[in-house]
Amino acid sequence: MANPELPPAGGLVLRPFRGVRFAVDDLAAVTSPPYDLIAREDVKSLLDAHSNNVVRLILPGADQRRYAEARETLAAWLRSRVLVTDDVPALYVYEQSGAGVLQRGLVGDLRLPAPGERTVLPHEDVLPEVVADRLALMRTTESNLEPIFLIYAGDEGPASRLVDEVAARREPLIDVRTADGLTHRLWAVTDATELDVVAADLRERQAMIADGHHRYATYLALRDAYHGEGRGTGPWDFGLALLVDSTAYPPDLRPIHRVIGGLPLEEAAARAKGAWQVHEFPRLDEALTALAATGGPAFVLAGTGPSHLISEPDAVQVAHAMPAGRSARWRSLATSILAEFLLPKVMGVRDDERSVRIVHHDPARAVRMAQAAGGTAIIVPPLSVDDVLTIAAGGERVPRKSTSFGPKPRTGLVMRTFAGE
């Protein structure tokens, strides 16, 4: 990872905390994907899987009392010992494994940097309304229910070696396989000497947010709100995070597709012809193959009917749409062109939560959603890890929902409450 400046005094800190964990027989049934990967239609199936599924906490509903209901549910589960707080503060080694997947890292309390520190680098923009929603939930429940996901260039150093040693030699607290085919294992590290090894190794390092920008922005907003109210330092000066050495476990970076409901595919393709080269393909897989082989900005428009590869946009129109003050690398990103040119200028919509639905990774699912809505799916190529790291190191951020790093931590395996601190 690019590291143009060493962090200031204080550095990257991941401290032990008293994890809050489910004490139920079917642990897989009470977990879920991260909140922003759960489609509306998936909430019911998660609730049907188990009455104590964590989705009741992270997506508590749509009425005005939803945040209070989440707080009440959390308190009830703690009283009834559906959820149990660990007795001793720990850093948790977390492993995800499956077909072609192995990722290990540390879950702990991330020290939130002061303004101007560069210990934690965001790389993606956020929407204020999403931060407001997460802030209301986090403040009402006084908890961090889902870890953010950070990567750092650890060079397989002491902290990374400790993670691998723990995973190889110790019995886990949790060993569960979830419906997505991944096995999740968790260990608690409580030995003072081992915790000191981690602290010393991380002190001069720098991390980048791989996933969880809205939750990270919420951490900062909550801390600032409490400080502004005179509450001083406290658990809100930290946030729950998974930290992974990207040298030892390179991240999997996948795209996030868009679905425009109500814009028929034929109309979308017609609009694109005013600024793009448009090539028709009878089948989606043929268009995706062509997209993967295309250099420069390109997307696939799909829905009901033939798919369309759009490429070679008009350079003058693209340049005119790009905001001033952005680097050449930022302006060349597929998602920058998507957010600043293709969606607002060509398709006539803004890339926001009200106008556009998002689909992580799966182009076929995006197409099905588009067909059901009588709309158009825009299949987006993945960004490169190098582009994202360079943008972040330069102090810029890619447009919202540009990246999907994985594998993402499973929600519900370990949580954090302020009362537990």
UniProtKB/TrEMBL annotation:
<protein>
    <recommendedName>
        <fullName>DUF1015 domain-containing protein</fullName>
    </recommendedName>
</protein>
<dbReference type="Pfam" id="PF06245">
    <property type="entry name" value="DUF1015"/>
</dbReference>
<dbReference type="InterPro" id="IPR008323">
    <property type="entry name" value="UCP033563"/>
</dbReference>
